[in-house]
Amino acid sequence: MSKTAFDGDEDLAEAAGRWIARLASGEMTAEDLAAFKAWRAAAPAHNTAFERERALWRGLPAISANQSHAPGPARRRLAAIGAGALAACLALFLFGPRAAIWMQADYQTGSAIRNVTLPDGTTAVLDADSAIAIHYAAGERRIELLQGDAWFDVKHDGSRPFRVAALGGFTEDVGTAFEVRRDTARVSIGVSQGLVRVAAPEDGAPGVEVHEGERVSYVPDGPVTFDRPIGAEEIATWRRGELVIDGATVADAVARIGRYRDAPVFIMGDVSAARPISAVFRTDRPDEALEAVAATAHLQLLRLPGGIILLRPGAR
User: Fold this and answer.
1) Does this model's pTM top 0.90?
2) How many CA atoms within 13 Å lie on the side-chain side of 20?
C-alpha cells in the first residue's frame, strides 16, 4: 500500500502527541520545556504537527473521571491517530481541567512569572500558574485568560480593539496598562495606567469605564462592582516580586502562595474559622509565607517528601 501524505507525517504526529501528553501532565521541568521549544523550532513541519495535534485535542469532548468510555465520535477519532496522541488523551483523562487549560493555552507559566511579547507588540506579564490563549483577527485582538493573573501594556490599534475575556465578561483597552485576575468564580481588574471598559456577562456592551487606580470585579451571574480605590503602584505588585494579600481567607491565601511553589500545598481539616490574612510576602520565598500563614492561623505545617506541604489545624 502506498503511503498517503498523512502517513508521511505519522512520526511527527506521534512526537507531537508525546509532547502534548508531557505538557498536560503538569510535570514539565525546565529542561523538558527547553527541549520542547527546540523541537518545535527545529523545522516548520514540527510546529505544524504540534498545532494540528493540539487542535484535535481542543476539539475533543471533555472526558470526566467517572466515564469508562469516550463518546462514540471521540473513539473513532482516537482510533485514527497514533500512540503519542493516545498518551495525550490519557493525560487529559488523568489531569482533567488542568490538562484542558494547558491544551488551549498559547502561553502558560509554572511557578515562575513570565514576560511575553504578543504578535501585535503588546507586552503581557503572566503571574505564576497562569495561562492565556490568543485569538487575533482582522477586526479584533482577543486574549482569553484561562487561569491565573496577567498584566497587559497594550500597543494601541484603533482598527483592532484589544479585549481580555474571562468567565463570560471582557475588559477592553482604551489605551492603557491593566491587570486581569481570574479566580475560581470571580474576575478582578485593576488599571495601572489609562482607562479600560469592563463588561460583565450580565451587563452587556458597552460596560463601565475603569480609570487609573481603580479596581473592579464581576462574577458570572452579576454586574461589575467597584472595589475600594487603590494606588496605581498597587496593581499587579507580583510583577516586582511582592504578593499582597488583603483580608483573604486562609484557603485563598494558601492557594495564592502555592502558585509560586513547584510542589503542591494541601489543607487538611476545616480552617474557615481562622481570621483573615493580610500581609505582604515575597514571591521568591513562598515557604516563608506559608510558615507565616500557619503561625497566624494556628496551623501545623508538615513537610512531606517531594516538597509537598500539608497544613492542618492544631498548632497553638
Assistant:
1) no
2) 35
